[in-house]
Each structure stands twice: as C-alpha cells, then as structure tokens.
Amino acid sequence: MTKSIFDLSGQTAVITGASRGLGQYFGRALAQAGADLIVTSRHADALAPFVTEIEAMGRRALPLELDVRDHDSIVRFGAAVEKASDQVHILVNNAGCNVRKPALDVQWEDWNLVLDTNLRGSFFVAQQIARGMVQHGYGRIINIGSVTSVAGFAGLGPYCASRGGIKQLTMSLADDWGKYGVTVNCLAPGWFKTDQNKILYEDREWVEYLMDRIPLKRHGEPHDLDGAIVFLASEASRYVTGQTLLVDGGVSTGATRATARKV
Ligand SMILES: NC(=O)c1ccc[n+]([C@@H]2O[C@H](COP(=O)([O-])OP(=O)(O)OC[C@H]3O[C@@H](n4cnc5c(N)ncnc54)[C@H](OP(=O)(O)O)[C@@H]3O)[C@@H](O)[C@H]2O)c1
After folding, report:
1. Do you know which Gene3D superfamilies this protein is assigned to (predicted)?
2. Which residue's CA is minimally distant from atom 25 of ligand 1?
3. Running DSSP on this structure, what letter comes out for residue 217?
4. Domain segments of the chain as ranges
5. What pTM did the predictor assign?
6. Pocket probe mutation, ligand 1, options 14, 15, 16, 20, max atoms within 8 Å of Cβ
7. Region class of 18: left (phi > 0), else alpha (psi between -120 and 50), else beta
C-alpha cells in the first residue's frame, strides 16, 4: 500500500511547551499521524497526564525538562534528546509566553521575559535540535508564530516584536539549513481561545469587535491547527521552506477593516 504523504509513522517529533494548551494539540495531531513524541515543560511532572494520553494512542512520549530561558537547560535537553532518540525528524518550537500591557507600562523585565522566551529560546532550541537533523540530512522545524508576526496590536508590544522576529528568524534559518534537507517554517495562529488568553474572551465588547474583524466570524479552535501542523511536519510540505502559514480565519486580511465601510 502506498504511504500517505501525511504519514509520520516511524518519525520522532519534539514539541516544546507541551504541558498544556496548543502544544498538546500539536502533539495529538502529530501522534495521530503516526509520530512518537518528545515533550517538554519546565516541570517534567506536569507532563505525566499528557504522556499517558499519548501512550494510550499507541505512541511513545518521552517527557523532558526544558527552560528555554536557560542556555544550560537547552544544552542538557539537547544531550537528553540525543541519548533517547537516534533521529529527530520534527521540531515544534511552541514554548512561549505573553505580557499584555499598554506600551507605557511595559517594564524592562517584561520585555526580557517575552523576548528571551519566544525569540532567543526558539533560536537556541532550533540550533540544538538542528545539529542532528543536519547530520541526517532531513528535518522539519516548525516555529510557532502568531498573527502578530504580520500585524501590530496595542498592548502587545514585546509579544508582537517577538513574533515578528520569529517570522524573520524562520526565513533566515530556512536559508541556512535548506542545503542540509532541513525545512524551517512558521505556523502562525490567529485568535485562539486557550488558557493563555481566555480572560480576554470574558470581555463581550472586545469579542464583538474581534468577530467583526475575522472574515470566518469565529475565534480559532485548537483543532483548526491540526491540518497545518501535520502538513508542515510531513513529506507533503517538502518544497515549502521559510514560509509563515497563517491559520487565522482570515483576520490578517483585514488590517484596514476597521476603517473600511461595512459591506
Ligand atoms: N493561544 C493563542 O491564541 C495563540 C495564538 C498565537 C500563538 N500562540 C503561541 O502558541 C504557543 C502556545 O500557546 P498557548 O496558548 O498554548 O500557551 P500556554 O497555554 O501558556 O502554554 C505555554 C507553554 O509554553 C511553556 N513555557 C512557557 N515558558 C517556558 C520556558 N521559559 N521554558 C520552557 N517552556 C516554557 C509552558 O510550559 P511550562 O509552564 O510547563 O514550563 C507551556 O507548556 C505560545 O508560543 C503562544 O505564544 C498562541
């Protein structure tokens, strides 16, 4: 029987920040497509229920500790990955955080937290995992960006800067590692309701404002990302690199929607 170009059987995927939220959805989608997982959190214990869930699907899931703000932790993590797995085929650089504040209130520490986690962390994790991918001549790196990779939003200065940086970093790494058979792309979700931002969705006025600007007229559900993550992780995307794939209900088309006449 011909293998589907979306089939990930026999492959290993590393997903950072898989203790909750979108990281777990990415993990489920990749495991469903056949991949075994290596999953991370700053607190390995927090991964136990997810590991059990993935094992119940008949896949392997190895929990590892990783703090992407700590270079020593990244190096230790890289060594543990190398020891545990002959080859990593897929990396999902998902660990991230946000600080929502008006720009005038942003503190030096807020900036460092968001940029160190989202941008510097993603770079050094990619570097660590790419060493093995380069040796094997194959890899799929998926950096998680955001609609803020391509548009600015009030109250999200450091976050937008970090996600804009991820888009540029993706292009740069794609150019660096393409010759080794490693593709690097950015998956950029729009407005999804998760633990990280559920408080926003309690503000009905804001939700109405947002829905008016999303062409598909709803916020994202985590499963809306399943197809995109499997596509970027699989053979199906073999000639795609350096790209940012927005999965956002079309909100990025509507930067001028606020000023346009309603139709
Ligand atoms: N939710 C959305 O609507 C949305 C939209 C666009 C993009 N994103 C991005 O998608 C990713 C996941 O979002 P989410 O909503 O699922 O977030 P979340 O629920 O807050 O989960 C964030 C994950 O990142 C990990 N993490 C945070 N800081 C870390 C650090 N210093 N070192 C290692 N891991 C760290 C956390 O693990 P531990 O705390 O267990 O260590 C957790 O597993 C983030 O990068 C986010 O910016 C989200």
Report:
1. NAD(P)-binding Rossmann-like Domain
2. 17
3. S
4. 12-250
5. 0.96
6. 20
7. alpha
